[in-house]
């Protein structure tokens, strides 16, 4: 994992804001009393720093929160950056420019909107009641001449619930041109309406609280833009998606009103015109309402008494896109990507309170699935900010004192065709000819099956390992490179945990008996559109040996081998004795008589051995009697023959006779 890190050296300088500026190649970071910039290519390089300190009385400065924490960084249309800080609970803003590699503050306050713990800030601050909030600008280039509005997401105690202190998630809408009322709601919002923001998951009765929101704008129709939001509920977390047109429909609906008994009911009376909470439009201008100061007291009183909508904003799919137990989601950003198969996908990048990043994607007709999990910080700490560079694909994140940079579009960890296709990562494709991962959509050899995850076109590989086991516990590791569930098979059948087998996330523990010997297979399992794809990760051929039995068998084998050797030596001795006796009988019964000159005499070697038992054989040499030159009779029964070419000796054993007349 190619991760770069920048650590703030000052112990009390807490990182509190983050902004990616692709146009100038800078990562802008807000901290305690200052703003500094880092290179987008390499955040270990600081490029500039500017301070926005507030000089406070000593009795106030000793409190950590009584300082100027930079909370908001926003790029304006002219390229300037809006920098807003807490300023010891007295929020203030300034403009910052970046020229010639150096950042500088202007000191000129303009009309702005700022979301802090309890305020939306401008030249004339207007107060609203919120506990936790995030702010998103929406409705650009709207039809009908409507002014732009801002959407807020926050949590608060539910006034409509009979039980006290029930926390709920809210969504609210405020017009950017809202100046407050002339007489009624002076310096108060005249367009502020709120509704319940629902993401149905978790235990019954447990609140689901919004943590972060990211807007994916539709370039063709802003009403089709989608909000992605993270929620937590006790030990569970979820991601839900909402369509902007559905949100607008809720704010155009009916209102709740508080009855005399304290309960909240649907308001059925007459509503003023224009619809309460509406922004200035061509329709309002036609009746003489040019600003919020022109609204009638009747309209403003209705807004003050009926801020809560009857309808609830519910998810686009009717349920969460992703739910996890034991994980606390914090931040989210969404990347729009066209995969190598030409399809559009939204990839969710989700930070957790333990410093991990989850990369998830949802395909049509399926639940979302986590493609990859990455650890951003070495020690567990919450992901406070996430910002994505659309230009480079680099993701930037911060904790309280560390900023990190990572390429979320990296595909090098997929080392095989199977891993790449089964992961179904829209960023990646597999080049079949070059047998490696590829980012180039123009290679015609790239495999791009994301919808089905079809790995039939990949070359298969078989990984087998034989492990002899003694009478002990053995661990069989299985660590697939992809984030897919695994299953174990034993001799072709699905393996379930039992008294002698313990299935862990990283492998299988065996306490073997003789019946446990066989082939164990660990494989990843992925179901796509009802079709199950399995890929073997590793195989173990397990042999179970009894060590004591091995020793006993070895002793038995040694004894048997010794007995066999002795028997073989005895048989060889008997055979050799019989062979010697047979040779003696053959020579004693031999009578060489020649009746004519053409009779053959057989020559035998002096040291004779059985020619049928050996590969090395001396051929019998027939000699015609007419070729003999002389015969010499030697003592002890030997006779020497001499011809023109050779001489040899023959044993007669006292029984040799010949007809000398036949020899010339």
UniProtKB/TrEMBL annotation:
The chain crosses the membrane at residues 557-577. One of its GO terms (cellular component) is plasma membrane. Gene3D superfamilies: ligand-binding face of the semaphorins, domain 2 (3.30.1680.10), YVTN repeat-like/Quinoprotein amine dehydrogenase (2.130.10.10). PROSITE patterns: IG_LIKE, SEMA. It holds the Pfam family Sema. Residues 1-408 form the Sema domain. Residues 441-538 form the Ig-like domain. GO terms for biological process: axon guidance; negative regulation of transcription by RNA polymerase II; neural crest cell migration; ossification involved in bone maturation; positive regulation of cell migration; semaphorin-plexin signaling pathway. This is Semaphorin-4E-like. It comes from Mastacembelus armatus (zig-zag eel). The lineage of its organism: Eukaryota, Metazoa, Chordata, Craniata, Vertebrata.
């Amino acid at each position: 994992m190619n991760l770069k890190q920048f650590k703030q050296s000052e112990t009390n300088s807490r990182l509190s804001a983050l902004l990616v500026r692709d146009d100038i190649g800078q990562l802008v970071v807000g901290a305690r009393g200052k703003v500094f910039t880092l290179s987008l290519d390499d955040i270990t390089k600081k490029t500039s720093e500017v301070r926005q300190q507030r000089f406070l009385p000593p009795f106030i400065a000793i409190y950590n929160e009584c300082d100027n924490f930079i909370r908001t960084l926003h790029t304006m249309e002219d390229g300037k950056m809006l920098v807003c800080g807490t300023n010891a609970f007295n929020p203030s803003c300034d403009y910052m420019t970046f020229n010639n590699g150096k950042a500088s503050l202007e000191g000129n306050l303009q009309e702005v909107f700022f979301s802090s713990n309890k305020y939306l800030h401008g030249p004339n601050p207007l107060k609203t009641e919120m506990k936790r909030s995030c702010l998103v600008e929406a409705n650009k280039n709207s039809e009908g001449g409507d002014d732009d509005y801002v959407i807020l997401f926050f949590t608060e105690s539910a006034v409509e619930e009979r039980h006290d202190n029930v926390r709920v998630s809210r969504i609210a809408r405020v017009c950017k041109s809202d100046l407050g009322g002339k007489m009624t709601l002076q310096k108060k919002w005249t367009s502020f309406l709120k509704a319940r923001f629902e993401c149905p998951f978790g235990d019954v009765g447990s609140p689901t609280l919004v943590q972060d929101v990211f807007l994916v704008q539709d370039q063709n129709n802003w009403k089709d833009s989608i909000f992605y939001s993270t929620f937590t509920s006790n030990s569970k977390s979820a991601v839900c998606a909402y369509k902007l047109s559905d949100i607008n429909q809720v704010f155009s609906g009916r209102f709740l009103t508080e009855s005399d008994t304290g309960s909240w009911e649907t308001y059925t009376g007459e509503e003023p015109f224009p619809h309460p909470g509406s922004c200035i439009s061509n329709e309002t201008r036609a009746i003489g309402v040019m600003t919020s100061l022109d609204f009638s007291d009747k309209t403003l009183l209705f807004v003050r008494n009926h801020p809560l909508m009857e309808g609830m904003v519910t998810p686009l799919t009717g349920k969460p896109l992703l739910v996890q137990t034991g994980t606390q989601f914090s931040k989210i950003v969404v990347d729009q990507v066209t995969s190598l198969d030409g399809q559009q996908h939204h990839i969710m990048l989700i930070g957790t309170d333990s410093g991990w990043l989850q990369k998830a994607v949802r395909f049509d007709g399926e639940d979302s699935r986590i493609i990859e999990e990455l650890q951003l910080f070495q020690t567990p700490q919450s992901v406070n900010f996430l910002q994505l560079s659309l230009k480079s694909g680099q993701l930037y994140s911060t904790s309280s004192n560390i900023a990190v940079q990572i390429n979320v579009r990296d595909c090098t960890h997929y080392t095989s065709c199977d891993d790449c296709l089964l992961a179904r990562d829209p960023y990646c494709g597999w080049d079949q000819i070059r047998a490696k991962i590829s980012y180039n959509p123009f290679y015609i050899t790239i495999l791009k099956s994301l919808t089905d995850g079809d790995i039939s076109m990949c070359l298969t590989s078989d990984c087998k390992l034989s492990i002899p086991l003694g009478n002990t516990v053995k661990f069989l590791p299985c660590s697939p490179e992809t984030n897919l569930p695994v299953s174990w098979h034993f001799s072709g059948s699905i393996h379930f945990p039992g008294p002698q087998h313990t299935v862990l996330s990283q492998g299988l523990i065996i306490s073997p008996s003789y019946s446990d010997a066989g082939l164990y297979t660990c494989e990843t399992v992925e179901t796509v559109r009802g079709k199950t794809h399995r890929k073997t990760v590793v195989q173990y051929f397990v042999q179970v040996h009894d060590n004591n039995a091995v020793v006993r068998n070895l002793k038995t084998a040694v004894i048997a081998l010794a007995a066999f050797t002795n028997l073989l030596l005895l048989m060889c001795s008997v055979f050799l004795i019989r062979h010697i006796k047979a040779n003696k009988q053959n020579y004693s019964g031999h009578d060489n008589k020649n009746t004519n000159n053409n009779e053959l005499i057989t020559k035998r070697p002096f040291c004779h051995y059985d020619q049928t038992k050996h590969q090395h054989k001396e051929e019998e040499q027939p000699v015609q009697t007419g070729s003999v030159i002389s015969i010499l009779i030697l003592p002890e029964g030997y006779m020497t023959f001499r011809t023109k070419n050779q001489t040899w000796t023959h044993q007669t054993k006292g029984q040799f006779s010949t007809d000398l007349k036949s020899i010339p």
